[in-house]
Amino acid sequence: MLRVFRIAAGKFVDALIVVVALASLVFLALRVLPGDPAALVLGDQATEFERAALRAKLHLDESLVAQYTRFLRGLVTFDLGESVRRPGTSAVLRVWDAALPTAELAGLAVLMGATVGVAAAIAGAGPWLGARHGWVDKMATALAATPLLAFAPVLTYALAARLRIVPLPGDPEAGALGLVFASGLLALPLSAHVARVSRAALDDVARAQFLGVARAKGGSFARVLWLHALPAAAGPIVTVVGAQLGALLGGAVVLERLFERRGLGTLILEAYASRDLPVLEAAVVFSGAFFAFVQQLAAAAHAMVDPRVR
Question: Would you give the distance in Å from CA 215 to the centre of its chain?
């Protein structure tokens, strides 16, 4: 147990280093690159007095070292300034408010994608998990290679606009069904990757000696599957889910924009369009931090379920 705790602590430190590095790059990108950030925010029609006032508000009139020190302190205290477009509103609070719908969308998509992917892999396996059909690999390969924007609008038009089986996900009155439909679209590529990896992992486990012993003891297929095969194959499955989280978050941004859903992706695009630098800075750092910590969490979970990687 102590070994697992040390691995988890090490992964946490690794994620923290990644977050600080990412935050530093974001800080430099908004301040060192050519161009006046105040002029970008206010536009060409602003007076020099207005630009100077905004530079003072954003502390752009301080030295770069002082700005960076203030920025690091803000990361620790979760205070990255106020929104330029909504004075008096904390940039971090705006990001947190937008992150909750994105977390719901992505979290449900992970659950659906992992469940459907593992179920498809089991369905494509023969008796005692031996290879039987290649349809899982063929379908998963085709689906994994299909961009989200290629099928999401088509399925939405067919199921929501024409057949009216599901509500439009962007409809404020869509409720839970709209969330499930949007998450299902986001889960399709993930389920394809999970199905491929699960199928390969189960095929490897089927040839393992311990599984043969479990069969020889008279265990039923369900017992051998749930108590022996799936736990042994859980490591690669957890790893592929963690590896696909980046694509999943990117897909969430696309869907939020496509369906005009409130979320982190919509906030980032709005902050970029309106040049709301504190909100844009906080949103990008939060997104990177979320991805880094979840990636390391997946690696730690893999180490817990598979002693071979400890």
Answer: 39
**Positive/negative CA dihedral, 85, 86, 87, 90:** negative
Closest-CA residue to 233 (of 209, 213, 212, 203): 203
d(CA 104, CA 179): 8
The pLDDT value recorded for residue 281 is 87
Three-state SS at 206 = helix
Quote the pLDDT of residue 195: 85
Tell me, what's the pLDDT at 226? 76
Which of 200, 206, 164, 201 has the alpha carbon at shortest distance from 181? 164
Dist. CA 149–CA 309, nearest whole Å: 37
Spans of the chain below 50 pLDDT: none
Instruction: Please list the alpha-helical segments (H only) found in the chain.
Output: 2-31, 37-42, 48-57, 64-77, 91-123, 135-144, 148-156, 175-206, 209-216, 221-224, 230-243, 245-259, 264-274, 277-305
DSSP state letters, 1-50: -HHHHHHHHHHHHHHHHHHHHHHHHHHHHHHTSSS-HHHHHH-TTS-HHH
The three-state secondary structure class of 125 is strand
How do residues 199-232 score in pLDDT, each as one tens digit? 888 877 777 777 767 677 776 767 777 777 777 7
CB 193 within 8 A of CB 117: yes
Structure confidence at residue 56 (pLDDT): 81
